[in-house]
Amino acid sequence: MEILWVLIALLMIGFVLLPFLRRRRGAVGLVPAGHPDAADPANYGFARQEELDIRMPGPDQDLLDVLDVVQRTQDHRAAQQLLAGTPADGEQRWQRVQAFAGAASLELTQRPGGVSEAPGGQWLRVWRSEMPKDAGGAAAHAEFLVQQAWRTAAPGSDEFRIIMEEAKAACGEAALLAPGDPVPYIVELSVARGLGYSQQEFEQVWLKILDRAPAHMGAHLAALHYWCEKWHGSRQQAYDFAEAAAARAPEGSLLAAMPLFAVFEHLPEVNLVSGFYQTEVVSKAIHGALHAVHSARPDDPMLAHARHMLIFFLVRSERWAEAMGQLVHVDGHVGALPWTLSPDPAAEFAVYRALAVAGYEANGGSPATLPH
């Protein structure tokens, strides 16, 4: 029996590594840097791995500038002013709330504080205490608690539940401060997943979001997690939810990309079917996401999310030129799925980027032939 397990393990390792050990026309693999056959992402103007920004999926210079000021001075006022000037029903407000909460949470992890040192992220707690009626601070604090629960405690543990219950209360406070803002309810979707809301309870929260922002892509992505097989739904429920969102998507909406995210959430742990990424379900989801990306406004804050997911699937599908076409739009920022699931998002992204470049060049592509 032990020999059988060894043989199975060797087969699986061989299946995973074989495509990356060879590089010829029509096949692609990674070779050492400096090798005559090595493809260099820098030739395409791509950022070096150490320069990749893991905080956001795409550029938001106003947010970057404010984050720099807040973290350098530990003064929350610039963050408060930015959120106050960000439309309540748009995708950008949700992303900025996540960014401020994530920055404070990461600071606290890096500097938990002590006898002679204030804990990291203190500026968010000061913001909340000094401006208790500020809707942006309340939403950021609720999201901070959610991120702390997922970051520091095991789901199902007493510690996790205590933090999530606190987050639930914070969501209620934030909603009262901004009745038309969907963000507090989007934050609560993560609470619902963590605390195991019944489907009826979840639907009540979801309807409040639909009343305020029915085409909100970020909200749909947050809701999709709840319906996934690994949480409180099933593969079919997740697919049904994503396909229904795509079907009712208004022209130019990125909701048409939702089925691709549903496929990603249900990828097999180990895929021994070489043609999986050419199957109809994957090909159809990629087609829908490509259509959504091509139809979306260039300034849509969720556009980068869809492009990052497309890069993952297009590389896996060996559609090198199409993967390169997405890379030129998002390179430099990697704070999005699927890279953020890795302990080192920049390194994960860099591997897929290198494979895309190698595959592109193996099939006759070059920097001169890549449209921008």
User: What's the end-to-end separation, in Å?
Assistant: 55 Å
Secondary-structure element string = HHHHHHHHHHHHHHHH
* Oligomeric state: single chain
Number of strands: 0
Task: Tell me the fraction of residues in β-strands, as a range.
Answer: under 5%
Keywords, please?
globular, single chain, 372 residues, mainly alpha, 16 helices
Brief summary of the model shown:
With 372 residues, the chain is mainly alpha-helical. The chain contains 16 helices and no strands. It is globular and about 60 Å long.
Q: Describe it for me?
A:
The protein is mainly alpha-helical and 372 residues long. It has helices at residues 2-17, 61-73, 77-84, 91-110, 122-130, 135-152, 158-177, 183-195, 199-212, 217-227, 235-247, 258-265, 280-295, 303-316, 320-330, 345-362. It is built from 16 helices and no strands. The longest helix has 20 residues, at 91-110. The chain starts with a helix and ends in a 10-residue tail after the last helix.
Q: SSE layout and pairings?
A:
Blueprint: H1 2-17, H2 61-73, H3 77-84, H4 91-110, H5 122-130, H6 135-152, H7 158-177, H8 183-195, H9 199-212, H10 217-227, H11 235-247, H12 258-265, H13 280-295, H14 303-316, H15 320-330, H16 345-362
